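Sequence of oxoglutarate dehydrogenase (succinyl-transferring) (Methylomonas rapida).
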Amino acid sequence: MSNLLELFKETSALYGGNASYIEYLYEQYLSNPDSISGTWRQRFDDIHRGSTEDTPHSVIVERFEKLAISEPGKLAKMQGFTEQSVKKQSAVARLINQYRVKGHQIADNNPLGTRNTIPADLEPIYYGLTQADMDTLFDTGGLCGIDRLPLHAIIQTLKEIYCGSIGSEFMHIVDAEPKMWIRKKLEGAKPDYASHPEKRIWLLKQLTAAEGLEKYLHRKYVGQKRFSLEGGESLIVILDELIMRAGEYKVKEMVLGMAHRGRLNVLINILGKCPTVLFGEFEGTHTSSPGVLTGDVKYHMGFSSNIATAADPIHLTLAFNPSHLEIINPVVEGSVKARQDRHGVGGIDAIVPVLIHGDAAFAGQGIVMETLNMSETRAFNTGGTVHIVINNQIGFTTSNPFDARSTLYCTDVANMIQAPVFHVNGDDPEAVAFITQVALDYRMTFHKDVVIDLICYRRLGHNEADEPAATQPMMYQKIRNLLPTRQLYAQKLITEGVITDETVDAIEQDYYQRLSEGQVVSRPIVENHSYSYSARWEKYISREWDQHADTSVTLERLQYCNQRLHDLPAGFELHPRVAKVMEDRNKMANGEMPMDWGFAENMAYATLLVEGYHVRLTGQDIGRGTFSHRHAILLNQQTGDNYIPLQHLSEDQGRAQIFNSLLSEAGVLGFEYGYSSTVPDKLVIWEAQFGDFANGAQVVIDQFISSGETKWGKLSGLVMLLPHGFEGQGPEHSSARLERYLQLCADQNIQVCYPTTPAQIFHLLRRQLIRQYRKPLIVMSPKSLLRHKLAVSSLSELTDGVFLPIIGEIDDIDPFHVTRLILCSGKVYYDLLEARREANLRHIAIIRIEQLYPFPNEYFKAEIEKYPNVELVVWCQEEPKNQGAWYQSKHHFYEIIDENIPIIYAGRVPSAAPAVGSYKTHVNEQKAVVQSALYGNKEGRKNEF
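Predicted 3D structure, token representation.
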């Protein structure tokens, strides 16, 4: 036997180095059995033995080795291979495969003419193929539908497909099906533009529009910023092709997100914004929309329209975007998800997200990675996004890729989700149009993300007043010598006899004429009021926060909801601790125990749902709750299966979406903001694991949540639950940075509340949806209060109560004997209450401010007036003096409290960090805070007040 093995090693065409050829043939067999010869097909059929599963390639080789030993005669019949011929064929197969893997690295897709050196493994000689082999016929493996070609023709075909104007990255995809699909698309028949001159003329018109707008604005509004698209005009070709192709798929809506580069061009030439309106924005004569107070610069503004396609119209929405570039990504995805949910079955095919990026931002900003990472999770999947990178090959003033990124391509971050990336030459509009079709087809077929890397350049500086040659002299020497894309393509069409010089000029003049007359220059706009933003949100505009809302619920409904929350599937075994929580909640529903926070919060969701409202909760531990109080998602301890009782309340209930999210703040909060700003009739909640984790999403808070309405008239009812409270857990687990939200408050833009009882959170959450008032709600939610013996409520507070912006004194204290009045918010109230009761200080009253903004002036004034003999007012807080509510709220106190009554601060001293790290130090500090509020000193001695 050993001699037979040695003989096999020396003579078999199927041994050792030729194993790759067998694998190559096997790949062909798996994708299309008919693409290989009958002899090989029979062998692979025998190996599969009727199985529908893939057989490991190592097993294939092993079985052929056994065949060579046991039945050597059969090998001789396999197409008459010699060892040399099989080695050559194997070499060709590996060369073909390597072009598919690495051809993009030497593609002719850079308008600036830069090309990489050909890697050694793309040279035929690397595989032992010489000039003598160039005319030899080899099996192509079905390349372009041709079975056999001379080697020189194979190489030429591979260069045209993989090294021309399009460089395709897709061989990194693990799943064989999409990888094979892309290969067939690229190697199949291309659009025959030569036979369709009308299509080529349309492409020229698109380029003329893209270039024409920029030239017109440059002449008319000299020196004004517009962030020109010049050098990247093919973006308009991509978007137009995308929309028309989407029409063929019966897509109903597309939501676009992009930063400012080329935005005005997209607004005018794609979305059909009236040029007269744009000119008014340049000239300062445009009137803002309702609800807009400050407005925003023109290249941040959003727009929506209905564009005619060969099929039905498509509703386009361009999201408002701040200068924080990629931060719009999760916001668009959230808006798309809301629209898909509203559409129902087939939503991911009906609404498609499109994100337009800058090259440096795509590589440099972490929010891109967060959004990509969200793309295939249950909570945030939108069925695939078409990403378009306007690759100017320069970031701001930095063009050297070694300064801009640590990767070969600016798009390499997309490899993390195995998205195909198509690097296309912006100066080849036909290649751009073709690859756009492939990209959308991929998205609609596999419902996964896909990237078009539009390699172009920036003809002008970062803005029109910038001189780019000051920092990039060599790059701009090249750029100044380049003909614009429109001129290059026009010359090509003229040379090929498709069009004349006169027609080219006529197209250009026609565009300028319509533009100067203020005509819409995009594809036809179709009126359709069913998509109107204002139609869904109109009743929420210009509403006051203190409108009445009946948030009470009957006892029967509370008990019904509780009973349904406890109806678990047969055999569903809860963890003993969770079972105890559920048992206690039954007692709470029956009035046998005071209600805790978890019961009241779940009752808020359940009652809203049975009333037909929709609820969506996301966060890193939203199901259980970081502090194990919510238990909205239950786990079977025997099987690991989960069950969400809030989804099984009644047949006609609202939709409950509850998802534990990925470990992201900016991405997830941005997504939920986008979702909430699209649907006004859904309670959308994001909970931070700890309140201070929201720091990681500060851009979303600053640029969207707090200012979206005043800049863009964009309303949102988003709720942020931010666990807050000083329990000695250190600087990073104490403060939700209440002061930061209060600093952002103005024009009734947001609500900031610090509820201290279960009934308060019940009514607060229900009020957020039942009122015809949509402003973001920031909640300082509790940690220790979740189970505090005093932080409880009765059933009657749910059946008869409302949310109280101010909660006055609850003990039996004579208001006429009160000389010291303590104002506070949140957890410190219970520390003050217990200390006052213990010392029996009957001259002190304590008032809780549960809504810090909009400040409830009338409620506060009414409460203060109950105490006519007050001599001193104290504001007490746990947070350091420079944090918390003191500096941002004290002006309200001075406006309402008699000017002759002193108002003093009691709390921690100013600090750079929110809290100390030592628990013992924390306890001493907390005691001092309470003592200074009650007595005016840290020792607890009584003073004149």
